# Entry
Amino acid sequence: MQSKANSVEQYLNDLPEDRKESLSIVREAIVK
# Structure
């Protein structure tokens, strides 16, 4: 899957709900 998002937030918003939740959790762990 290739995304045309220009930011991480935009990429996450474009994801299907089931994947968005998982990747948001991973992103929070990385940002800490």
Summary: The helical segments are 8-14, 17-31. The longest helix spans residues 17-31.
